[in-house]
Task: structure prediction
Amino acid sequence: MKWSGATNHKDIGTLYLLAGAWAGFVGAAMSVLIRLELAQCGSFLGNDQLYNVLVTAHAFVMIFFMVMPVLIGGFGNWLVPLMLGAPDMAFPRLNNLSFWFLMPSLLLLLLSGAVEAGAGTGWTVYPPLSAAGHAGSSVDFAIFSLHLAGVSSLLGAVNFISTIFNLRVFGMYLDLVPLFVWAVLLTAVLLLLSLPVLAGAITMLLTDRNLNSCFYDVSGGGDPILYQHLFWFFGHPEVYILILPGFGLISHIIAQETSKKEVFGVLGMIYAMASIGVLGFVVWAHHMFTVGLDTDTRAYFTSATMIIAVPTGIKIFSWVGTLYGSKPSYSPSFMWALGFIFLFTLGGLTGIVLSNSSLDIVLHDTYYVVAHFHYVLSMGAVFALLGSLIHWFPLFTGVTLNPVWAKAQFFTMFVGVNITFFPMHFLGLAGMPRRYADYPDFFFTWNMVASMGSIVSLVSILFLLFMIGEALGSHRCVLGSKSLNTSLELAHSCPPMTHSYSSCPSIYK
Amino acid sequence: MMSWCQLGFQDAGSYFMEEFIYFHDFTMMIILGVLSYVVVFLVLGLLSGWVDSGFVEGQLIEFMWTIFPALILIQIAFPSLLLLYLIEDFSKSFLVCKVIGHQWYWSYEIKTESSEILASVDCYMLPREGAFGMRLLLTDEFLMLPINVPVRILVTSDDVIHSWTLPSLGIKGDAVPGRLNQLNVTLSRKAMFYGQCSEICGANHSFMPVMLMGVTSPQFFMWLDRL
Result:
């Protein structure tokens, strides 16, 4: 009963973490199946529609049911009220609704794969393939799944914005607000402004499929490119939604693990995140460079996309700057943060290569794009996620993980993801297209290498599951935190009391 | 054509692709430089030895690391935009080739600017078994185009969105129903060029390849007559 009617932000955060972890394993299983199909030439699954369904579902599950719930729902709910000195979120019952909406959403997505032929459209769900090209109810189920997930995130965004603007402790002016809270605030604003556009786009797709409207149907005077514009107007802010909370978490981990009271250049970090958020809304068509846009339009989107590299670079350099004059602790979470800095930089740089509309003609819809976004997601967002999990696990549960095993798990994951995704750059340059169930024999070597790497990553996350189980069973209780008093969330008992603050904390300069 | 264990682009078959390869080399040089900077300073920071918890800001260095990346990006953007306008600056071409994507094959219609359709051909992928080494790349018929002649290619689709591409020529255009997308290409050598559909279009998305042969003009007209 406590869990279905949860209103405590810590309980809801725990629910999100558990649901996200479960979905993470579902997504990982799908990714292993994909790599099994691609490990050899010829067909393994025997059904290419099924392969397309797997690719689509892998993306949806990882984005909407793993990264977003864990980073925003899990860490956001757990840490934001604690860091602000607030007793809970602004709307606790709305918080609960946001979480529970994800359950039918995931169910609908899995159902979409189970009925008829499944939605083999890619997570972008472009018509006409998703309209006339997919008769049957699968795509409709997927659309409804996205509706529910969208409402969940939208209500959560409203909750976070209200909390962060109104429930700060007296004296915590906006420039004193911790960086993770800033990150969540900006993420929430991005969600608020982009999700309605997705909702509109997919609702129009739904009516095109079922009610004979012709928003995207050429024979009725519509245009498939309209869908692409609407989808990517949501889709680009969405990828910043996926990474911004990770930025905030990495800032906290680095500051705490290097015993600095804050990262280098806090104000610069805040402005950088805000710039990334704002600029993220005006670059969407760099996902559409080959659809036949006007030349001047492509020139604009190339330039605007490149500008985003400047604030992102500021963040990377500031994190590196934090390491100077520090005493690094080389703890497992610190290693995840270092891995994040290096690999996210690499992913961002391949993004710069792709931002050139001229060069993108050769690289669009190839494995180079797949390599780019997996570097920034699997090694950006997911490293931030796993590092934060290791870092705050003692706070959330009151017990500690085995640090030696945690370091081993980091190295295994690091090796695994790099072996999986680095060869994809070669495949993309050589011309292997995306979303392919089989490939010409020339592409065999790197595909096989990548599939080997995916097994290494799988072992790593299974080991993480074991580590968590062992920690909960061995019950090595937390004695105290060795972090500075700038980390308000660690001033609590482990785990914090149900009512974390019996009176408002005070801020001292 | 691609090769085993390939690391980079396929050999260029058109002037524009050569420029793309040079531009990519240039951009790679810059991004490897940036990556090295980040890695070196990261490692030096970890090994630095001195401790100063008050080292949390620096106006000059923050200014520098805002301006320098912006200048580097302008350095990349200049050739990038130059290339973009170069490839879209097409002169009159007398030869027009209409590419139509279907689920799951390509069809081509050749005409000149002022004539009717001279020839059309449908290209289905050859069965995977027995294609030995060129599996998934061969079609029963293929397109032939004369070399050193600017060709205007108009791409469209009959059903869902596909994408017609030839990586070694540096061209790619989405085949969208109800829309004609123009590509301009001038083949620079006599060779066989291969490409594959590049926009998910259903179950056989992986199995609708593009085959294009660059031939001399007389050979091209002989082929047209045969069709």
Q: What stands out?
A: Chain A touches chain B through 89 residues (CB under 8 Å). The domain at 9-490 of chain A is CATH 1.20.210.10 (Cytochrome C Oxidase; Chain A).
